[in-house]
Amino acid sequence: MPRLKLTALLPLIASTIIFSCQPEIPLVKPPFQGVTNDWYNASFDASTGHTATFPNGTEISIPENAFIDENGNTISGNVDFKFQEISSVDQVLTSGIQMTTNNENREVMVSADMFELRAYQNGKELQLGKDKTIKTALASNEGSSEYDFFFLNEQQKDWDLLGEVQPEENQRKISAKNRIDSLANQLVDLDMDNIFALNYLPLIDLADKPLPKDKTFNYHNYRNDPSFAVMDKLVTAKLMKYGAKWIFGFDNKQVRHKGKLYHSSMVLWQAEKPIPNWISKKRYEYAPWSAYNANVVKLKSGKYSISITEYQRIDGKWQQKTIFSTLASIKMPLKELYQSAPTHWSEEIQRLEEEAMKLKQVHETQNLFVRTFEVASMGIYNYDRIKKNEQIMVSIDLELDGKKFDWNRNMDLYTVPKGDNTVIRYHKSQKDKFVIYPDQDMLVFTVLENNKIGLLDDDFFQSLNYQSIKSSGNSSITLPLKSSDIVIKSQQDVMNFLAGNKEQPQLSLK
């Protein structure tokens, strides 16, 4: 039997030794003990599948009979499903997911949205069966097309590129906005602010004419005619129940509304300025239609100029003066108003306002864009772009409170470039590959015992001579960390810690 010579084995032995000496850097290493992101948990029958919809617009659709066990058998019975969406930089940090590639360049990945899918039965992890996929529609406020779709390959210890996925406008958010606008228009139609009707008592000639056949304006018994004062109180009270005002002025003109002619006193008017309360109290006990006149004039703009003239008898002579005027438009015929009871009118307003409030919450919580992809494996996925900022790679040493920092305590160093949805984690073995961004501020820290933060001063990088560092080609710097009073006990603490490192994006639909 032929034997390999030792010299032939040496390269293999050497490569094995080198590989075995490489430290095992975990792909996922949550930095804070006892602090995790929120997970969505659901238990469902594997034979029926499951769909989960989230307030931000994300939706996960699992088909029936989707899962298999470690032996490749299709699972039946209940499945425990877990899902976490990692959208913000504080969630990225808390998740501990590696945001760099493991290639020679160690590229930094900036996330638009990231998520993790897991499924279990009786505590054992399940996988998706052959030809089974889970439809994922991830909602995000990042609308750039620069982001590609990646899968964190736990066997190869690196991110696999799955393809390009273009963002689409979130139709749920758009539909909510359209419905809110529609409701707003309906509420405007129902709104009685600065709404009034002109005196229409002269149109009901109590002495000479029978009552209107439709009885819309029927307030009295024809055989026992009340006085104008009583009639005035009746019509005023009725109109006020709808929230409109009554102006005791009459003008015998015709106006056109939606192709039909109406008497100017037979429509509701929308004033362009507030109607003073005193104008609704003006009355004249002898000849109401001649004591207060309304002058209705249509303008070229399509609106109307309405002025109220008061006649007063002074020294035996009638004198007139304009006491109120406004631009106005026709809101609706009075008959249309009176077709519904005042209670129905107010109830309709309340119903529309409640619907609008619910839709407003939907619109505010829904993200602007959705990226859809059908995944064929359980695990961690990310919509990413490679960070392109100018960078300088240096070797670093650490100090903590003026003393050399011991990296043998299984601690990592973290950097968060300002405005980017990413966190860069450095193991001790990567101290000679520390990246500085000359054109970008970044937060640098480590997590000490009991989740206490060791922090680098914000102005440290401003004191560096970047030109000198670049020209030297192999620079080494010391980062002087300081123990801070910041202790991370919850996800809210993480959010507060990183709040000053965010840049608020300008959110808008295309």
What's the topology here?
Blueprint: H1 6-21, E1 40-45, E2 50-53, E3 59-62, E4 67-68, E5 78-86, H2 89-95, E6 109-121, E7 124-125, E8 127-128, E9 134-140, E10 148-153, E11 158-164, E12 168-169, H3 171-190, E13 195-198, H4 228-241, E14 245-247, E15 254-257, E16 260-263, E17 267-271, H5 288-291, E18 292-298, E19 304-314, E20 317-333, H6 334-338, H7 342-365, E21 369-375, E22 379-386, E23 392-400, E24 403-404, E25 413-417, E26 424-426, E27 434-436, E28 442-447, E29 452-456, H8 466-472, E30 476-487, H9 491-498
Parallel strand pairs: 13-14, 23-30
Antiparallel strand pairs: 1-5, 2-3, 3-9, 4-8, 5-6, 6-7, 6-22, 9-21, 10-11, 10-22, 12-21, 13-17, 15-16, 17-20, 18-19, 19-20, 23-24, 23-27, 25-26, 25-28, 28-29, 29-30
Helix pairs in contact: 2-9, 3-7
* Count of runs of 4 or more consecutive helical residues: 9
What would the principal axes of the Cα set say about the shape?
Answer: elongated
Strand content: 35-45%
Radius of gyration: 38 Å
Q: Which structural class do the helices and strands define? A: alpha+beta
Biggest sheet record:
8 strands, mixed
Distance linking N and C termini: 72 Å
Kindly report the average pLDDT value: 85
Which residue ranges are poorly predicted, with pLDDT under 50 across at least 5 consecutive positions? 1-21, 205-216, 218-223, 285-290, 503-510
Total domain units: 3
- The percent of residues in helical segments reads 10-25%
Number of strands: 30
